[in-house]
Fold:
Amino acid sequence: MAVFEFNFYSTKLGRYVPAIGILPTDGGEVHPECILECYERPMKTIYLLSGYSGGHTDWLHYTQIVTFCLKYNVAAFMPAGENSFYLDSKKRDAYYEQFVAEEFVNYTRKTFAAVSDKREDTFIGGISMGGFGALYLGMRHSKVFSKILALAPGILCYGYNEHSNFFFDAGMTKEYCDTMFGDPKKLILSEANLEVLYQRLKRDKEEIPAIYLTCGTEDFVLEHSRVFYQFLKKENASFYYEETPGTHEWYIWNGHIDKALRWAVGRAD
Structure:
């Protein structure tokens, strides 16, 4: 297998961007830890997003993602997302949605021959801010991604609105929120509101990715997951929801990403 760091020039961000890649097999013998059946079908790919104040190496340093990629025959790519919430921003001339969901995906597909260009083989996931990013990008680009893995997502419209100081309490400044998100009254009506986005896809009869949503019972963003779970349930969405003991910590997400990848590749055991 191969684990590597690379840089490529992003026209959407106007600079070189670092990323981590994991390719589980070189086409040789399968490692004993692997689930053999996973190597009888094409390799899947997941794009994993980091959280607020995190970086592109977080998944590599704080989880066993290399082991899980090997076990399930899944390639993983982890781009630097800064503190962008994976939104396009004309004001900052930084187009993180287009960078991740279009430019980065296309770059990895063209550069690495083993990476599938099929929707059914392509997933997106993330933790915290990256969990929101996975939900947002996964649905905004539903023709690219077939499954979304959202671990303890900090869901924007639930944490930044007229009635909530959630993001301020989490350490974000008013200046940051004003710059990044703008007027909360307008935000709630936009597709940065995941409920608005989901209902638009449903109304237009577009394919909607299946969603894996999980959070710790002591996590400060738990209420976000519970509210979104109720919304998905009301909409009769295709999703899996689970709460487990734990806080907003990587050791919790390590277990969650193992289970989420198992779900994504269709392993029932």
Notes: The domain at 2-264 is CATH 3.40.50.1820 (Rossmann fold).
